[in-house]
Amino acid sequence: MEPALLAMQDIEVAFSVGKKDYPALQGISFEVREKEVLGIVGESGCGKSLTSLSVMGLLPGAAKISKGKIVLGDSDVTNLTAEAWCKIRGKQISMIFQDPMTALNPLVPIGRQIEETVLIHSAISKKEAKQRALEMMTKVGLSRVEQLYHEYPHQLSGGMRQRVMIAMALICEPQLLIADEPTTALDVTIQAQILDLLRQMNQETGTAIIFISHDLGVIREVCDRVIVMYAGYIVEDAPVAELLEAPKHPYTLGLLQSIPDIEKRGQPLYTISGRVPAITERSTGCPFVGRCSSASPTCERSVPDLAPVSDTHRVRCHLYSEVGEVI
Ligand SMILES: Nc1ncnc2c1ncn2[C@@H]1O[C@H](COP(=O)(O)OP(=O)(O)OP(=O)(O)O)[C@@H](O)[C@H]1O
Ligand SMILES: [Mg+2]
């Protein structure tokens, strides 16, 4: 097995609202190994972005890591200073966001924005940095790069802007790339091209990827392993094939049934009734209890552990006893 690049160890993130602290992430434990593509899936508000922001040292001011440890390579990065983070971000680990328009500077030509990352992290001349930027732009499938180098973000299409973001994120050859819903704002054809590009980059350079999406259909196209999140918890974690063939958690089953299927054309799409509870509404029981058709009184009382059902598969559900059998 490849060594772990990132280890999240029992992470809890809480928001201060008024005088109270509300946990938004709880018991988040997982590892990302070299070259791996790990998917994180869950509905809006489940904590996918907070998980990635805590890995990047970019949590919003009102949020804090109240428990646990984040280990990147050999270093504990849980309480790093802003200055120390600047040395890591871009070089060891980088991120692409859902909406490139808010992540790109509208006033700076895109070529300059791409080469800036290299100039910060390596001692090379401006001329060499420009060369690297142009090469990277070509690599991510942009054409007429010499001209594009001088253009501004608003002159590009959504798909081209996302390619620019990928070039910026990968130019320093980070070991780990976090892609937070990178294709949600794009139409399906462009979405497929961007997914192919990320997969290709992963295979060529060995960059590990955390790929975040609310769409299990997209996750199954690109990921090796999947983490399913619900209301701030990891509820299931398995290799993608295992999760699709033998899903355990009732929430995962619901997500799988919600994937549009050409064979069911004309039938109404399955939806999981109810919604993700807000961080102020979370109770002491299983986070999914309010929406689960298999819930029992035990589920109201306590949060299940994230327990192994095989060497590679974990699930947080009272339906599965310690021996991994359905009760
Ligand atoms: N600045 C904030 N203040 C208070 N609560 C917040 C803040 N940011 C996020 N939250 C809460 O934390 C929870 C997790 O949010 P997060 O953005 O990680 O969800 P997500 O899974 O990325 O959702 P989406 O799919 O919509 O991007 C949500 O319940 C959200 O309301
Ligand atoms: Mg998000």
Automatic annotation (TrEMBL):
Cellular component annotations (GO), alphabetically ordered: plasma membrane
Biological process (GO), any one: peptide transport
Membrane topology of the entry: Peripheral membrane protein
Entry keyword set: ATP-binding, Cell inner membrane, Cell membrane, Membrane, Nucleotide-binding, Translocase, Transport
Keyword 4Fe-4S listed: no
PROSITE patterns hit by this protein: ABC_TRANSPORTER_1, ABC_TRANSPORTER_2
Domain ABC transporter: start-end pairs: 8-256
Name assigned to this protein: ABC transporter ATP-binding protein
Source organism (scientific name): Paenibacillus anaericanus
